[in-house]
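**Polypeptide and fold**
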Amino acid sequence: MTGAFLAGALCLGATVVNLVSILVAMVRIRGPRAPLPLEANPPPVSIVRPVCGIEHFSEKTLRSGFELDYPDYELIFCVARGTDPIIPLVERLMAAYPQVPSQLIIGDEQISENPKLNNCVRGWNEARHNWVILADSNVLMPRDYVQRLKASWREDTGLVCSTPAGSHPEGFWAEVECAFLNSLQARWQYAGEALGFGFAQGKSMLWRKDILDARGGIRALAAEIAEDAAATKLVRKAGLRVHLVDAPFQQPLGPRKAAEVWYRQLRWARLRRVTFPLFFAPEICTGALVPMAAGALWAWGYGYSVPAVVLLVALAWYGPEFVLARLKGWPLTPRSLLTFLARDLMILPIWTYAWVAVRIEWRGNAMSVRTKAAEQLRVTGIIG
């Protein structure tokens, strides 16, 4: 009975922690609401946007940066290669909004294996203002984008970020990616922040330039393969905190294929594994399948109905998650339960493979994230 007892304890403990994280997210994350007003005498802001290739919603997301309700800001677009197909779109938008100071920088600086960070270096150096936002090209900026980032800045803040909120999904696998981004990853990130473990997220990062420049500038973010992981460690070492905006900014998805979702989630999991292994280890229990299996083992050991217990555990996990997504205005469809289940079926192999995978790809750029353990496995021929 010891095994069944331990399985029951795991099931109960994981379920309670999951419910607490959902409650924290319900309180911490705002739902749809009116735009924030401007603060008195708002400071000027530089927005640096690395761009690479054409995506499904590129024009919509890049245009949103020109239509902010903020009196004094500049846009700096950075592209690594002069042949990139995104350049004509950026130039057309810059010409359509001459009232917004903007520039396009072509050519990166190789300071790390991270192509996104390399693409941002010259933009950071060109930024004219002390408040600088590093924003991915696929972030859909609301009109109060700057206000919402600034509103989360406090005396102990070193960095304000936003997780991506998946929106505009087209098809089943895009809905699965929404299930990853929204009611799983964003929810856990807000729960972590509430416990004092704020982690940076590279989608939108508001910096005070003097804070980062005093600690090596943007080049200091090359200390880790992921710039947001390096930012987290840098801010914590400075005795400051990472804070999140009151609600995630949208990332329109469009259509997705299963392989796209798999490799994107594997890349992020591998980066989390390399940069924060102690926090990554429990991620295997963030989906419902491990608690459901543990509940089934407990029921079998004590003579209860296995299907009934598994169903109860599933309801305890997916019911509150569905309510959270509904309250926050995140995409939901009649098949959302299936997308939650598909996501959780992917968590176990992604988590397992993330411990040994040594190569990831970001927009066609191969990146090595070897650790000593992974290198030993490669040498012995277990992995490539």
In short: Residues 370-384 have pLDDT under 50 and may be disordered. The CA atoms of residues 248 and 370 lie 31 Å apart. The chain has two domains: 2-25+274-379, 35-257. The domain at 35-257 is CATH 3.90.550.10 (Spore Coat Polysaccharide Biosynthesis Protein SpsA; Chain A).
